[in-house]
Amino acid sequence: MGRVLCIANQKGGVGKTTTAVNLAAALAAAGRKTLLIDLDPQCNATSAIGGEPTPRHPLVQRTPLRDAVTATEIAGLELLPGSRSFHDVDHLATAGGGESRLVADHLAASLSVYDAVLVDCPPSLGTLTETALATADEVVMPLECEYFAMEGLTQMIELVKRVMTRRNSRLQLGGILLTKHDPHLELTHEVEREVREFFGEAVFQTVIPRDVALAEAPSHGQSIFQYDCRSRGARAYIEVCQEVLSP
After folding, report:
1. What are phi and psi of 191, to 5 degrees?
2. Helical spans, DSSP H, in 169-210
3. 3-245 adopts what CATH topology?
4. Which helix (H) or strand (E) holds 19?
5. Fewer CB within a 10 Å sphere, N or C end of the chain?
6. Residue 59: how many other CB atoms lie within 10 Å
7. What does the pLDDT read at residue 149?
8. What is the DSSP string of 65-122?
């Protein structure tokens, strides 16, 4: 089975879905057969690459992934769309330990055909995120370069550590990715300095710039590479992809 990367942060608006979509697109462009899984009930990852949310979530119905994934306009990238069904969201979000394990096992059993799987998690520390972490090899945590960026990060790391201690867990910290980076702001440099001093090599060398193209691309149902392949955001996600693929 290929690598399963969980893109997670309990704080909203940090570039989590942007990272999931564009890193998935970059991996596909690099020749990796890639699957993007939308676990966020907002279904932003689904719409960001031109997909449509499903009436019922495949993970609730135990639908085989081969019957539930859809093609995208990006060569090599498939999508397991999310669902806005209140029933399904509630079912996944309140599942007990045994039920959560069944969902994780069902998901893991269907991923062997992919070189890379990226899971876009909801902005929470709930069962959906925990289920995704239980399935993943690595967790990537986008972190916005603003004052409150590190608030709650300790809780997220504690959840990651808890999942890591479970039997048969493969989970490792894939890295912390600094997003919405504005080199003209002193605050950006302060946040980056503090994060790198505290987390060291766990922080990606590449930073994601504050780029209007990254904000505009989802409204067109496109990745940044389809929307503006020459933008600063596109270059940054290519460099992140290179870091992910480097030994």
Report:
1. -65, -45
2. 186-199
3. Rossmann fold (3.40.50)
4. helix 16-29
5. C
6. 25
7. 76
8. HHHH-EE-SSTTEEEE--B--HHHHHHHHT--HHHHHHHHHHHHTT-TT-SEEEEE--
